[in-house]
Amino acid sequence: KMEEFLNLTQLKTSLKEAILLDYYTAGFWWAKEMNFSLIQLSGFMDLLNFALENLSSKYMTLGDNLKELERTMAGIGETDSEERGDQNLFSIEQAKAIIDYLVTSLFKHYKAYEYLFHGRREEPVVSNE
């Protein structure tokens, strides 16, 4: 289901798509284990996507991404949850757990994710040899 939701069409041949599927699936199951409500689960998945988009599309450095996450978690930045009026979507304990999760799942491996999105790849050469 996650593969369909993320519109991953080359999962069997794309390392990038396989890593993205793993990233989102692991996050989803972690949030389920935290017993997040449906709204909290959606907000958490938005945070995962937010942090990854900052890296992949906005080319943010680790420090900038952490600052942006801090602003978002504090409710200072313009976020969807702020517009809906549910700034207190997570308790303090849940917010701390989310930050810990993001640190271990994404930020500790930031260089690898940067390479995944921005590293130069050589085209494979296929020959009879």
TrEMBL record:
Return the InterPro entries for the record: CLAMP (IPR032727)
* Pfam families for this protein: CLAMP
Q: Which PANTHER family match?
A: CILIARY-ASSOCIATED CALCIUM-BINDING COILED-COIL PROTEIN 1, COILED-COIL DOMAIN-CONTAINING PROTEIN 189
Q: What is this protein called?
A: CBCO1 protein
Q: What is the lineage of its organism?
A: Eukaryota, Metazoa, Chordata, Craniata, Vertebrata
Q: Which gene encodes it?
A: Cabcoco1
